[in-house]
Amino acid sequence: MNIVNSCFWSHFEGNPYIFCERQLCGIIVEPANTWSNIGYLIVAIMIFNSRHTGTRARGRFFWTTIALFIGSTLFHLSGTWWGKFLDVGAMFCLSMAILTTSLERRYKIGRHTGIIIFISGIILSLIYLYFVQKGLFLFGTQLAVSTILERRNAKRFWKSLVSFGVAFLFWIMDVKRIWCDPDNHLINGHAVWHLFAALAIWLFFSSYQSKDESRVL
Description:
single chain, 217 residues, 8 helices, globular
C-alpha cells in the first residue's frame, strides 16, 4: 500500500509494503509497529544501569540498542526507504555487537582489535545492504556464527536465541498474514516481534555479564 501524495511522508521514497498493519496518512504511518519499539528503549536503559560498568559489552550493547530504537521507530513512523535502511543498519549493529563480543570472549581479543572488527563488520554489512537491499540472510549468518562460538557457554545465551526465535515466528506470522488485522493499530505480529526481540537483546547482554565471563570482556 502506497501513501498518497498528500500525506506527511509522501515526498520521500516509500518502502515496499510488506507488513500487515495498514499504513495511515499521517505523521505516524504504522502506530502499532511504532509504539512497540519502546521495548528497545527500556532495554537500553536497563543496560545503561547495569552494575557491570567496566565491561566493553555494556557500552557496545547500550549504543546498539539505542540505534535500533531510533532506526526502527523512524522506519515504522515514516514507512520510507531511508527509514528501512536505518532500521536494518541498526540490526547489523546488533548482530555485530553479539558476534564481536563472542569473538572477544572465545579468543581473548584485545580492545582495539575488537573495535576494528565491530566497526568493519558494520561498514561491510551496510555496503551489502545498500547493493542487495535485503539484510535478513547476512543478519542470520552473523548470529549463527555467534551461536557456534557460544555453544559451550552460558545458558542465558541459548535462552536469548529462543526469545529471538519466538520473535521471528511472530514476524513471519505478520508478513505471511497468518495473524493479521490490518486495521488493528494497537497490537499485531510485528509489534510482538519488537517486544520479544528486545527481550532477546537483554538476554544476550546478560549472558555476557555472568561473573565467570565478565573478566574477559
